[in-house]
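Hey, I was hoping to borrow your eyes for a little while. No rush at all, and the record is pasted right below:
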Amino acid sequence: MRRVGHLFIALVAALLWPGSQALAQCIPIGTNQTCTNFSFMGFGIIDLATLTLTNTSSGIITGNGVLTFAASNVSNAGIILSTSVSGIAANTDANVNNSGMISGAGLGVSANNTATVINSGTISATHFGRQYRDGR
């Protein structure tokens, strides 16, 4: 009986212990998301503020790609393929660590302010691989 009590306490603690937000699956439209994508997202991800995204090697994001109304913090090991303008587009800053593939119809990565891109994968687009408003 004592062993069952210990198992019950361990189970309750595991269920109530706060988990990492980064393990939450992304949703197509959200605000201030911190999420991890493990699967196929055909619509893309639009965040109305700042997005912190981990796209795993099994993650595929298509459609609108990744669009944010503020900053984008993206770690990509999978595929981000936008059929609209940019693979990743940030209204302010973009911080991108890419070991997968990012592709956009017009731009691979775009930011209206500053973009920091670490790339060991592929970034491609019809026009430019990356573009920043201030010319960097």
Summary: The radius of gyration is 18 Å. DSSP finds one helix and 16 strands in the chain. Residues 4-8, 10-22 have pLDDT under 50 and may be disordered. Helices lie at 2-16.
